[in-house]
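so my prof wants the structure for this chain in the tokens format not the other one, which i didnt know existed until like an hour ago. anyway here's the sequence
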Amino acid sequence: LISGLALNGAGVIHDVELALAGKTSEDVASHLHTGQFGTAREPAELIHAAVAHGHAQGGVGLGQTVGQRLLELAPPHLDLSLLAAAASHSVPVTVHVALGTDIIHMHPAMDGAAMGALSYHDFRVFCRLVASLEQGVFLNVGSAVIIPEVFLKAVNVARNLGYSLDGLTTINMDFQRHYRPQVNVVERPTAGCGTGIT
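here's what i got, hopefully its the right format
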């Protein structure tokens, strides 16, 4: 049973690209040399329109508003979208953006205040999800920095508010071992009360 999905900003972009085009890839080296890296119009426009709508609506996060937008537009490869699948099944998707790290942040429609507000809403949702992880499982799949950092803060918020995370199992899955996932996902949150697996 999946009670939630947390992504970094790049995860949303790749998800939207998959829904629109059925693939997600770019030759960064050649496109960077010409100044064309990350300038595909369609994914950025879809995400920024969803952000503007969600910010105006209020009370929603980035994951929910992009997932709903994908469902409304029904792009050709909607079946490949985690965001759309989660939205259609009312599974929370939280998106944790580090402003300036994603290609859509270069787009003229970028609204940092709106993006930040929706991502902060998602952080609060994520904290609630983490607070319910007593005897639960948290998987970190392929995030070397953002999700491990956000997870550690959410664990602290949960414990600060008096929630028990006893019996928590954390699992890090990646091609390479990195410091933050090992320490912030596998070791620190489970020390003395759970199990961490790499």
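also thought this was worth mentioning. The chain has two domains: 5-129, 132-197.
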